Amino acid sequence: AQKITQTQPGMFVQEKEAVTLDCTYDTSDQSYGLFWYKQPSSGEMIFLIYQGSYDEQNATEGRYSLNFQKARKSANLVISASQLGDSAMYFCAMRTLSGNTPLVFGKGTRLSVIA
Amino acid sequence: DVKVTQSSRYLVKRTGEKVFLECVQDMDHENMFWYRQDPGLGLRLIYFSYDVKMKEKGDIPEGYSVSREKKERFSLILESASTNQTSMYLCASTTLGQGAKDTQYFGPGTRLTVL
């Protein structure tokens, strides 16, 4: 079974600064994918970034990057140059790539960006 | 663009009522999922379906059932609503086999209140 742990229920960051949201995972599978989603107050889930377990380089998508440390089983999300619109809930998720499996989500981190 | 729609954004029902939550996707996805989201608990999988008329229990199926009569539609049914089923319900879909980067696409959510 897979498990995602997000230890930060809430975080604050100053506008234009970088912030790291923590995510650790547990799985016995060798082939898996890690995902980050953003959920603004409107409620929709927005896919941000993906990292495969065999990807050698850390994933990046614009201001988002994923700090993947396989040995530590961590997949932290880094947001650079925070903007007020980044205020939202952020969820880390994973699934194994063997078979047709659903995503398993962490409990989320609420990020508040302060002007 | 993938579109996942849910029949209602907000719903208020009384204890004991039978409740139907409808989800429709327009991308011919084989896989569909129902999650519930509660503060501090993240997203928890209720049921999922890999094909028409097929269903699999997720982590918290008790008190719920599902129906998938057509590929594009996945319904969540609360046979006899209870107050502890007050929650945000999110539907998602994705392609069969779920290639490494195939993320799940989410609907806007239905916020259900059971009085």
Structure explained in plain terms:
The complex is a heterodimer of chains A (115) and B (115). With 115 residues, chain A is an all-beta fold. Chain A contains no helices and twelve strands. In chain A, the strands form three sheets. In chain A, strands 2, 5, 6, 10, 11 and 12 form a six-stranded mixed β-sheet that branches. Chain A is globular and about 45 Å long. The relative contact order of chain A is 0.34. In chain B, 0% of the residues lie in helices and 51% in strands. Chain B has strands at 4-6, 10-13, 19-25, 31-38, 42-49, 56-57, 65-70, 73-78, 87-94, 105-106, 110-114. In chain B, strands 2, 4, 5, 6, 9, 10 and 11 form a seven-stranded mixed β-sheet that branches. In chain B, strands 1-3-8-7 form a four-stranded antiparallel β-sheet, with no helix packed on it. The model of chain B has no long low-confidence stretch (mean pLDDT 91). The chains are: A mainly beta (115), B mainly beta (115).
Given the helix and strand composition of chain A, which structural class is it? Answer: mainly beta
Residue share in helix of chain B: under 10%
Beta-strand fraction estimate of chain B: over 45%
How many DSSP-defined strands of chain B? 11
Report the major sheet of chain A.
6 strands, mixed
- Compute the number of strand runs of chain A: 12
Label the overall shape of chain A.
globular
| Largest interface, C-beta within 8 A | A-B, 24 and 28 residues
Low-confidence stretches of chain A: none
The percent of residues in helical segments of chain A reads under 10%
The span between the termini of chain B is: 37 Å
Which descriptor suits the 3D outline of chain B? globular
**Low-pLDDT windows of residues of chain B:** none
Please tally the helical runs of chain A, counting DSSP H or I stretches of 4 or more residues: 0
Order of helices and strands of chain A: EEEEEEEEEEEE
Q: What Rg of chain A, in angstroms, do the CA atoms define? A: 14 Å
Query: End-to-end distance of chain A, in Å?
Result: 41 Å
Structural class of chain B: mainly beta
Range of strand content of chain A: over 45%
Which whole number gives the mean pLDDT of chain B?
91
